[in-house]
Automatic annotation (TrEMBL), chain A:
Keyword set includes Nucleus: no
Top EC category: transferase
Name of the protein in question: Geranylgeranyl transferase type-2 subunit alpha
Reactions catalysed: geranylgeranyl diphosphate + L-cysteinyl-[protein] = S-geranylgeranyl-L-cysteinyl-[protein] + diphosphate
Residue numbers spanned by region Disordered: 193-220
Keywords: Leucine-rich repeat, Phosphoprotein, Prenyltransferase, Repeat, Transferase
One MF annotation (Gene Ontology) recorded for this entry: zinc ion binding
E.C. number(s) listed in UniProt: 2.5.1.60
InterPro entries cross-referenced by the UniProt entry: LRR_dom_sf, Prenyl_trans_a, RabGGT_asu_insert-dom_sf, RabGGT_asu_insert-domain
UniProtKB/TrEMBL annotation, chain B:
Subcellular location as annotated: Cytoplasm, Cytosol
GO cellular component: cytosol; nucleus; Rab-protein geranylgeranyltransferase complex
Family designation: Belongs to the Rab GDI family.
Name this protein carries in UniProt: Rab proteins geranylgeranyltransferase component A
Record domain RAE1/2: where: 430-553
Basic and acidic residues bias (residue ranges): 608-617
Stretches the record annotates as Disordered: 104-195, 577-632
GO molecular function per UniProt: GDP-dissociation inhibitor activity; GTPase activator activity
Compositional bias of kind Acidic residues: 106-124, 136-176
Keywords tagged on the record: Cytoplasm, GTPase activation
Compositionally biased tracts (Low complexity): 177-189
One Pfam entry name: RAE1_2_domI_C
Annotated SUPFAM superfamilies: FAD-linked reductases, C-terminal domain, FAD/NAD(P)-binding domain
Length: 537, 632
């Protein structure tokens, strides 16, 4: 006859569990103490190996024990032959797998695995890769595993195309995974580099030198592959336009050429006997090897940034020795050499002229490539079309709006100005948490547009009033401006960078909310300053 | 079973081991009720059962033979004063009908060049069969064990004759009505792929687990919830349905339903992708706009969403799985249910139990047995003894003439005599087809896919067909084959309803030109009564007798689970329905362990369990094949 089933009461169970825990703790503490004392005595035997194993399998984050374990293993390497060492390390790997099951994000376990893999006499990289695959299939954002995998790929020389199809697979199963997209962006330039000539057949011998690191390569990708990538990423952001990984990758694809490092402008003023130099990016002129040659004679000058606060700045000035160019009847030829970059710029100061400058005739292409560009206009145009198509379906999607703005700027910043402003307005409404960011970005674009207009008009007057500016930028581009009108905006300050306006004579900044004037104290030619209706304390 | 008598008193006696009955049994046993669970069949799960190939052949044979009503015995000696005797129906003759079998593969391996057979057998259902075929024929020799040896042709009902005359080509087996050996023909065409022979199917028969009903488990449906809640899930393993397919314009296409699917889909444009995703996200919540369509067809609602033909088809037929005239609110509810279940266990909303659906009732029976329930197969209840005054069933008489007292009696509907059943609507039927094929309807990178295929009506007035294709790793068919289940609400006989779909999606002797389609090696058609309309109570039966209906047409299991819960709560309204079972180590078994210390106790508990299970096994001996898998 069947007995009725009785079930232990909760109290019974609790009590049993408590006892169990106590017992476990006792064992744990005893083993830990044994380990510590053994290590102190410098004993590297099998028993120590076992004790640490016992402890680490329940707590894989005990770094000291991993260290002790490595000491033991290194000792064993010296006393065992290769086959035995291989066996020991193989056992170590399978032990580590059990630790990773306890905690798949244990720093100690992954680090130890790296260490073991590197010391294994005959490593089985294929097995390691499949372990990573398994871990990533359980958690595709386990960055420990990503790190370990990168190490394995690098050491074992997995072909780039194989890695690319690995990212295909991961993105296919879940495209909200920026690790995979980013990995793709490092692989594509290696596999499909942008180059006019067809990729040269690999001359490297087959005994695989590790693949060239992405850093040494151009970051651009050939157009044919780019088109495929656009399609892939569009599938992602049409499927889920709120997922940022795809949009970030898209931004990377649309890419931006890095501006050439160069001296963008040299300005010389006869009265002040001063030279100002603008660079395409902030530099520390004191350490980049800047050489000023005046009429064939190198000059000993002291370069200083426009504001004492800047160690790095795009604009640097120096005073010439008194009397060198003071005479208005003399003509002088200046050359500024940037020895580090093997580049230089000449500037001639003609007779009768009080000042002179030399710079590139700036066009929008060179000045502001905004965030995107380099691709053919036709490609950008068709990308803009797809984004507009998406916007029609998702009129309030911020990623889409922002991308459209960037595409428009890359295509025709002035022509799209009105639409850009409207999109910014929508952005501020749909993503009010970031409205200040959008205002700053919009200010930046408005300033760029005004600079472009000024360049086309070939004047030295910069006027941008009543445009809701919240911030100032690109001030290095305004080195030659003599008259600036910033009135009726929402500027809070004239920042130290304002000192880059070395030629400024008139500054209009009425009707803002300016509190701080740091930048105006270093303007050598300033004559007129209008600051009505501000918040200066 | 040993011929020893059963205990003479139980709290609940349950007759029939279908899903609802088994859940009821587990629920009662779990809260300490004494349960006797019997089934007159030699296997568990009644019409919910899964069979090996050979087991299915036996089942087919039994259903073709018809029933042999046992002589009604006279139990009047067991009737006590004030009691009345109600006889239960002793044969299940109405639930299965129109069984037809076709073997399209050669009997032996192909080298033997034997004239291959196409065998068809057909048996009309018993009387009362609403979809009885006009031109029924009887199988000669139906007692033969090996059905495939028969070389008999029966005319098909419903104008299938012409198709059958279609000449066979390319070494395909000739029709049975053209028995000329086609050796020359078969030689003229080199065999591309060696077909699996019938002998091989029989030999590997144990690798098959062929379900009588074809259902899937919604991953947030009531069955999955119950399996989890009750811990019964520990007795089974499950596989994800890996993809949803649909048949459209003569092509099988994958239905993108998860985010990853939509992303990867090649047949949708990016705009369609966005529209689909937006529709799926937006329909989760009810809106004013949706309410405006209440009562109007879902199709109309979908049309007005400007989704385009592709998406409309996917949403209507594969995601909502409704028909063109289903009202919007129903279509949306069904879409929401689909979406709610998505992503819990994988890329589709469905799970399938490894080794087949027949596992599920057995898992509940096992839980019942672990908590003391007693099981007997090939054992029935023939009569109820009713107290005239209270109109309550006091006891039952089992098939061996033992009087067993009980407080409640639960039974499968087929045991209820027709005269006592209260049926409001005419009985509906399911049309079923089971195919063994040689490849998938949509080959992909992996040959181990479990697919749900929705097939919209091929013509007006035809039923929508639901198809489930199982691969060998689901442990329901032998490697190298696929097991395909087709199900629909009957319009005509199973063959009439389903063979047009089979012929258009597969290669059979009737559709020999479908070269790119999977070949059908063997197939079975039958109709099963859908008694789900039946009420639990309200029949001409005592008040403490409850009736469980058999499988329904729905894809999920909600009906049976709800029915079981209803019965349980009717009888024990205060008790919890299937509370979580304790861990095996927390169960204390009575009996042979005198004074357990903590550690000893554990060891003996382990033994205790095996003992308990042994008893279950003993009861099960007769049907070892169904319940014992190599893994266990």
């Amino acid at each position: 006859m069947h007995g009725r089933v009785k079930i232990k009461s909760t109290a019974q169970q609790e009590e049993e569990k408590r006892k169990e825990r106590e017992k476990k703790l006792k064992i744990y503490v005893a083993a830990r103490d044994a380990c510590f004392s053994k290590r102190k005595e410098g004993i590297f035997d099998d028993e120590a190996l076992q004790l640490t194993q016992q402890l680490l399998s329940s707590n894989p984050d005990f770094a000291t024990l991993w260290n002790y374990r490595r000491e033991i293993l290194m000792h064993l390497e010296t006393v065992k032959d290769e086959d035995e060492v291989q066996k020991i390390y193989e056992a170590e790997l399978s032990f580590l797998e059990s630790c990773l099951k306890v905690n798949p994000k244990s720093y100690g376990s992954w680090h130890h695995r790296c260490w073991v893999s590197a010391r294994l006499p005959r490593p089985d990289w294929a097995r390691e890769l499949s372990l990573c695959d398994r871990c990533l299939s359980l958690d595709d954002r386990n960055f420990h595993c990503w790190d370990y995998r990168r190490m394995v790929v690098k050491v074992s020389g997995v072909p780039v195309d194989q890695e690319l199809s690995f990212t295909d697979r991961l993105i296919g199963s879940n495209f909200s995974n920026y690790s995979s997209w980013h990995y793709r962006s490092t692989l594509l330039p290696l596999l499909h580099p942008e180059s006019p000539e067809p990729p040269s057949p690999r001359r490297e011998p087959p005994q695989t030198s590790p693949p060239p690191s992405p850093q040494t390569h151009s970051h651009r990708v050939c157009e044919e592959q780019l088109l495929k990538e656009y399609e892939l990423v569009q599938n992602a952001f049409f499927t889920d336009p709120n997922d940022q990984s795809a949009w970030f990758y898209y931004r990377w694809l649309l890419g931006r050429a890095e501006r050439e490092e160069m001296i963008s402008c040299v300005y010389v003023s006869r009265d002040e006997e001063r030279v100002a130099v603008a660079f395409s990016r902030p530099v520390n002129a004191q350490s980049v090897g800047l050489l000023l040659v005046l009429d064939g004679q190198p000059q000993r000058v002291e370069w200083r940034s426009v504001h004492p606060r800047f160690k790095h700045s795009p604009v640097w000035i120096c005073d010439l020795p008194p009397g060198t160019i003071g005479d208005i009847t003399n003509e002088h030829n200046l050359t500024v050499h940037w020895t580090e970059k093997h580049t230089h710029r000449d500037c001639a100061l003609y007779t009768g002229r009080a000042e002179s400058w030399c710079r590139d005739s700036a066009t929008d292409q060179e000045l502001f490539r905004s965030e995107l560009s380099v691709e053919k206009t036709s490609v950008l145009q068709s990308e803009l079309q797809s984004c507009n198509q998406l916007l029609e379906l998702e009129p309030l999607n911020k990623w889409c709006l922002l991308t459209i703005i960037l595409l428009m700027r890359a295509l025709d910043p002035l022509g799209y100005e009105k639409e850009t402003l409207a999109h910014f307005q929508t952005l501020r409404e749909v993503d009010s948490m970031r409205s200040a960011y959008y205002s700053d970005l919009c200010s930046k674009f408005m300033i760029e547009n005004t600079i472009l207009k000024m360049e086309y008009a070939e004047v030295r007057v910069f006027s941008i009033s009543d445009k809701n500016l919240t911030t100032l930028c690109h001030l290095d581009q305004l080195l030659l401006v003599t008259h600036i009108n910033l009135s009726s905006n929402q500027l809070q300050r004239l920042p130290p960078q304002f000192a880059m306006l070395q030629c400024l004579e008139v500054l209009e900044a009425d009707d803002n909310i300016i509190e701080s004037l740091e930048g105006v104290y270093h303007l050598p030619k300033l004559e007129e300053l209008l600051l009505k209706n501000n918040s200066i304390l | 079973m040993a011929a020893e008598d059963l205990p003479s008193e139980f709290d609940v006696v349950i007759l029939g081991t279908g899903l609802a009955e088994s859940v009821v049994a587990a629920a009662f046993s779990r809260v300490g009720q004494r349960v006797l669970h019997v089934d007159r069949r030699s296997y568990y799960a009644a019409n919910w059962a899964s069979f090996t190939f050979n087991g299915l052949l036996t089942w087919i044979q039994e259903n073709q033979e018809g029933s042999h009503p046992e002589e009604a015995q006279d139990w009047s000696s067991l009737v006590e004063e004030g009691e009345e005797l109600i006889r239960l129906s002793n044969s299940d003759s109405t639930s299965i009908s129109n069984v037809q079998v076709f073997t399209y593969t050669s009997e032996e391996d192909e080298e033997e060049e034997e004239a291959p057979n196409t065998t068809e057998e057909e048996t009309g259902g018993a009387e009362g069969d609403a979809v009885k075929e006009a031109s029924e024929t009887e199988s000669a020799d139906s007692k033969e064990e090996e059905t495939e040896e028969k070389q008999e042709e029966t005319a098909e009902g419903g104008g299938g004759g012409e198709e059958e005359q279609a000449p066979s080509t390319e070494g395909e087996e000739p029709e049975a009505d053209q028995p000329a050996p086609s050796a020359a023909q078969s030689q003229s065409e080199p065999a591309k792929k060696k077909k699996i022979s019938y002998t091989k199917l029989v030999k590997e028969g144990r690798r098959f687990n062929i379900d009588l009903v074809s259902k899937l488990m919604y991953s947030r449906g009531s069955l999955v919830d119950l399996l989890i809640k009750s811990n019964v899930s520990r007795y089974a393993e499950f596989k994800n349905v890996t993809r949803i397919l649909t048949y459209r314009n003569g092509q099988v296409e994958q239905v993108p339903c998860s985010r990853a699917d939509v992303f990867a889909s090649r047949q949708l444009s990016v705009v369609e992708k966005r529209k689909l995703m937006r529709f799926l996200t937006s329909c989760v919540e009810e809106t004013e706009e949706q309410r405006a369509y209440n009562g109007r067809p879902y199709l109309e609602f979908l049309r007005d969403q400007q989704l385009g033909d592709n998406l409309q088809h996917f949403l209507l037929h594969s995601i909502a799985m409704v028909t063109e005239d289903t009202p919007t609110e129903e279509g949306l509810a069904s879409t929401r249910n689909f979406l709610r279940c998505l992503g819990r266990y994988g890329n589709t909303p469905f799970l399938f139990p490894v080794y087949g659906l027949g596992e599920i009732p057995q898992c509940f029976c096992r839980m019942c047995a672990v908590f003391g329930g007693i099981y007997c197969l090939r054992h029935s209840v023939t009569c109820l003894l009713v107290d005239k005054e209270s109109n309550r069933c006091k006891a039952v008489i089992d098939s061996r003439g033992q009087r067993i007292t009980c407080s409640h009696f639960v039974m499968e509907d087929s045991y209820v005599g027709v005269d006592r059943k209260k049926v409001d609507t005419p009985t509906r039927f399911l049309s079923r087809a089971v195919l063994i094929t040689d490849s998938s309807v949509l080959p992909s990178d992996s040959d181990q896919q479990v697919s749900l295929v929705t097939v919209p009506p091929i013509a007006a007035g035809r039923p929508a067909v639901r198809m489930v294709e199982l691969c060998s790793s689901s442990m329901t068919c032998m490697p190298g084959t696929y097991l395909v289940h087709l199900t629909c609400q009957s319009v005509g006989s199973a063959h009439e309803d389903l063979s047009p779909v089979v012929n258009s999606m597969f290669r059979t002797p009737e559709s020999p030109d479908q070269e790119t389609r999977p070949s059908v090696l063997w197939c079975l058609y039958f109709n099963m009564a859908d008694s789900s309309g039946l009420e639990v109570q309200g029949h001409d039966l005592p008040s403490n007798v409850y009736v469980c209906s058999g499988p329904d047409a729905a894809l999920g299991h909600d009906h049976a689970v709800k029915q079981a819960e209803f019965i349980f709560q009717k009888i024990l309204p205060e008790e919890d329905f299937c509370p979580p079972a304790p861990n095996p180590e927390d169960i204390i078994y009575d009996g042979d362990n005198p004074s357990p210390t903590a550690t000893e106790g554990e060891a003996e508990e382990g033994e205790g369990e095996t003992k308990e299970e042994k008893e279950v096994q003993e009861q099960e001996e007769v049907q070892e094949e169904q319940s014992l898998h190599p893994e266990e």
